[in-house]
Design brief:
Distance between the termini: 51 Å
Bound molecules: pyridoxal-5'-phosphate
Low-confidence stretches: none
Number of strands: 10
Length: 354
C-alpha cells in the first residue's frame, strides 16, 4: 500500500453515483474533498459537536465547482461549444474556470455593481464574456434561459440537473468524514439548489444503507431576501450576503420539501446576525464569505431559541471563501498600525514584556 491517496475530484471519487459513462470527458479541477473543521468555539457555545464544512477551499473558492464539473463534462459530452449562466458571482467564477479547462466559450450575465470584486476578477481572468445588466439575479436568470432556448448554448445554472447531481457529493463527503450523517445540517439558502442537492445526497446514502439516519435540514435565507420564509417572491431582495441575494429561487419546491420531510425549517437571519457570525468564525481561523456565515448565524439563532439539544452532532456548511470579497472584510476590521522598523517599538505595540 502506498499510503498516498490523491483526491481525484468528485466525478472520479463518486463515479458509481454520478451520471457519467466511460465516454464522458471528465472536466475536473479536482474539486471536492474539502475539510470538515471541528469548531471548538461553536461546540462550547452550543453544547454540541459542531463541524464546519469549508467548501470555500474548492478550486474556485465555492461549492459551485461540485456541480460545475458535472455540468461542463456533460455539456462537452453532448458536443456543446458554449455555456451560459446567470450569477451573483460564484457560478460565473466556476463556469468560467471549467469552461476554460474544457476549451469552451463561456458567457455570464450578472447584476451590475452587485457582485464581489474577486468573483468578477475570476470570470474575467478565466476568459468569460461578462455581460452586466441593469437588473437583479432573477432577471439575469430569465435572460440566460431565453438565450439557451433560442441559441446553441448550454445553460449551467442550477436549473441544469447535472449541477444538483454534483452538489450531492457535499452530503456524501460529510457522511464519509463523520462516519455517519449528522443530526442537524445547517446551510445558507439562495436559489435553493444546494439544499435540494444536500437532501438528495443524504437520502440516497440512507436508502442505500451507507448511513443509518437522516439529518434535520435547517436552511437560512437573509432577512431582506427571504422568499421561502415569506411564502412569496421578493421583488427587490436586499442583503450584504450577495451570494444569497435572490428573490425568486429556482428550486423553490424541492427546498421547501427538504425542510418539511426532514423535520427542519427554512428561516431567516438578519445582516447583523450574519456579520456577527462571520466575525466569530474568522476570529477562529476560518475565512468564509458573508453568505456562508448565514449557516453559523442560523445555528446561533437555533441555540438561543433553545431548539437544539445538547450533544447533537451538527454540520454548518460554509459555501464560499472570504477572499472573494476582501474589500468588505477590510472595511469592518481594525486599521493596521504603522511604526518604525524597531524591535522594542514593535514589542510595545504587541504588548510584549521582556
Ligand atoms: C450560490 C451560493 C449560495 C446559495 O446556494 P443556492 O444553491 O443558490 O441556495 C450560498 N453561498 C454561496 C457562497 C454561494 O456561492
Amino acid at each position: 500500500m502506498s499510503g498516498a491517496h490523491l483526491w481525484r475530484g468528485i466525478l472520479e471519487e463518486y463515479a458509481d453515483r454520478m451520471p457519467v459513462t466511460a465516454d464522458t470527458p471528465v472536466v475536473t479541477l479536482r474539486e471536492g474533498g474539502t475539510p470538515l473543521i471541528h469548531s471548538e468555539e461553536l461546540s462550547e457555545r452550543t453544547g454540541c459537536e459542531v463541524h464546519l464544512k469549508f467548501d470555500g477551499s474548492n478550486p474556485t473558492g465555492s461549492f459551485k465547482d461540485r456541480g460545475m464539473t458535472v455540468a461542463i463534462s456533460k455539456a462537452k459530452e453532448a458536443g456543446a461549444q458554449a455555456v451560459i449562466c446567470a450569477s451573483t458571482g460564484n457560478t460565473s467564477a466556476s463556469a468560467a474556470a471549467y469552461a476554460g479547462k474544457a476549451g469552451m466559450t463561456c458567457g455570464v450575465v450578472v447584476p451590475k455593481g452587485k457582485i464581489a470584486l474577486g468573483k468578477l476578477a475570476q470570470a474575467l481572468v478565466h476568459g468569460a464574456k461578462v455581460i452586466q445588466i441593469d437588473g437583479n439575479f432573477d432577471e439575469a436568470l430569465i435572460l440566460s434561459r431565453e438565450l439557451a432556448d433560442a441559441y446553441p448554448v448550454e445553460l449551467v445554472n442550477s436549473v441544469n440537473p447535472y449541477r444538483i447531481d454534483g452538489q450531492r457529493t457535499g452530503a456524501w463527503e460529510i457522511c464519509d468524514q463523520l462516519g455517519s450523517a449528522p443530526d442537524v445540517h445547517v446551510m445558507p439558502v439562495g436559489n435553493a439548489g444546494n439544499i435540494t442537492a444536500y437532501w438528495r445526497g443524504y437520502q440516497e446514502y440512507s436508502a442505500d444503507g451507507v448511513t443509518d439516519r437522516l439529518p434535520v435540514m435547517r436552511g437560512y435565507q437573509a432577512a431582506g431576501a427571504a422568499p421561502l420564509v415569506l411564502g412569496h417572491p421578493v421583488e427587490q431582495p436586499q442583503t450584504i450576503a450577495t451570494a444569497i441575494r435572490i428573490g425568486n429561487p429556482a428550486s423553490w419546491q424541492p427546498a421547501v420539501d427538504a425542510a418539511a420531510e426532514s423535520g427542519g425549517s427554512i428561516r431567516s437571519v438578519t445582516d447583523r446576525e450574519i456579520i456577527a457570525a462571520f466575525r466569530l468564525i474568522a476570529r477562529h481561523g476560518v475565512f468564509a464569505e458573508m453568505a456562508s456565515a448565514a449557516s453559523v448565524a442560523g445555528l446561533l439563532q437555533l441555540h438561543e431559541a433553545g431548539e437544539i439539544e445538547p450533544g447533537q452532532r451538527i454540520v454548518c456548511v460554509l459555501t464560499g471563501h472570504g477572499l472573494k470579497d476582501p474589500e468588505w472584510a477590510i472595511s469592518g476590521a481594525a486599521e493596521p498600525v504603522t511604526i518604525p522598523a524597531d524591535r522594542d517599538a514593535a514589542a510595545r505595540e504587541l504588548g510584549l514584556e521582556a
